[in-house]
Amino acid sequence: MDVLRSEKVAFVDLLAQREALGSAIDDAIARVLAHGQFIMGPEVQELERRLAERAEVAHVVACSSGTDALLLPLLAWGVGPGDAVFVPSFTFTATAEVVALLGATPVYCDVLSDTFNLSPASLEAAIDKVVASSALQPRAVIPVDLFGQPADYREILAIAESAGLKVLADGAQSFGATLAGRPVGGLATATSTSFFPAKPLGCYGDGGAVFTDDDHLTEAMRSLRVHGSGSSKYETTRVGLNARLDTLQAAILLAKVDIFDRELERRAEVAARYTDSLGEHLMTPVVRGDRTSTWAQYTVQSRARDRLAASLRQHGIPTAIYYPRPLHQQPAFSGGLLAPGGCPTAEKLCDSVLSVPIHPYLRDVEQDRVIAAILSALRTTGPWPGVL
Ligand SMILES: *Cc1c(COP(=O)(O)O)cnc(C)c1O
């Protein structure tokens, strides 16, 4: 068999997942069409219950996107102008966007070179800088579980507690992962996730959820999700949003939750196979021993990243760069502050990361093609100066 044949490998394969689910999705949609409760129908509460049970938390507030799942806790905490919110510079734009949108000041921290997650040392230095300048009030930190691996919550919670910061975990990519045996959802004061179709647990549109054990926060978020409504629909007690999750999306997610564990296993198997075959040849992802990853992405590093991507494209292997620019260099976010020493690791990663196809339905022959294409690229471009 020619493992380098040019047929395309899918980066994410939602059609294969749909086939694996049989009629479950169609049946779930048909039930919603029959009962007609499209807004906040019974599937929304059922999903919240299922997810809370899974994450071992008291409350889940389903909402309209992973971005709104970040916005809701910050709004509930009253974060706004004059507040400093610490974020890693190497993440998706939404993590800082919500901070800037509320008029608060994002403070960009560097990340660790092995896990790509928020550096506790950079966070500490950034807090000291904000405290010393006394122009802003340190209010919250948003660690991101990048590519599906939980951040260092034990260290971060200790730092946050002594500085009086709320911890909002951006678990958009990590729902289903664990840290020291505890599931994502209960690792911080509040945890947000996203059900964007390409995330490990995705719906067929936009969706998200917030996880927390905090009763007051939950009450505030449930109100903020529906225009800040009070005890009756037409009493407005908060300036809120329209941030509900559609009943149809909740029904679709309920069907997908049933196969989620199996999917996570399959992702981990693909990742292990990649690392076995590629680990000696280029810089492969590191998951620390005390945690598991959802493997939302499988991201290698190479200084010859662009040549590697071009070579893979020729072999029909799609790749993606998450993320090409650190947030502190985004034009829209120039109003933020930078941790002392800047974010050199974030900058280096933006020039060297490359994500290759990983999903639960990636067949062995396709994995072999990805591996063979990478090894072949390494042969033609010469040995990598690749490792950072
Ligand atoms: C996807 C993502 C978001 C935003 O989620 P949406 O559902 O697209 O709004 C936020 N943070 C991170 C790290 C993400 O990957």
Q: What is the straight-line distance between the termini?
A: 35 Å
User: Quick check: average pLDDT?
Assistant: 95
| Low-pLDDT sequence parts | 1-5
Gross morphology is globular
Number of strands: 12
Bound molecules: pyridoxal-5'-phosphate
- How are the strands ordered across the major sheet? 1-9-8-5-4-2-3-11
Percentage of residues in helical conformation: 25-40%
The portion of residues forming beta strands comes to 5-15%
* Rg (C-alpha, Å): 21 Å
Counting helices, strands and paired strands, the structural category is alpha/beta
Put simply, the count of helices is: 13
Order of helices and strands: HHHEHEHEHEHEEEEEHHHEHEHEH
Main beta sheet, described?
Answer: 8 strands, mixed
Summarize the structure.
The protein is of the alpha/beta class and 388 residues long.
What does this structure look like?
This protein is of the alpha/beta class. The chain has 13 helices and 12 strands. The chain has helices spanning 14-20, 24-35, 42-55, 66-76, 94-101, 120-133, 153-163, 215-225, 247-257, 260-278, 305-314, 344-352, 364-381; strands at 59-63, 83-88, 105-109, 137-141, 166-170, 178-179, 182-183, 190-194, 208-212, 298-301, 337-338, 353-356. Strand 4, helix 7 (153-163) and strand 5 (166-170) form a beta-alpha-beta unit. The protein is globular. Residues 1-5 have low confidence and may be disordered. Bound molecules: pyridoxal-5'-phosphate (PLP). The site of pyridoxal-5'-phosphate has 15 residues, from helix 4 and helix 5.
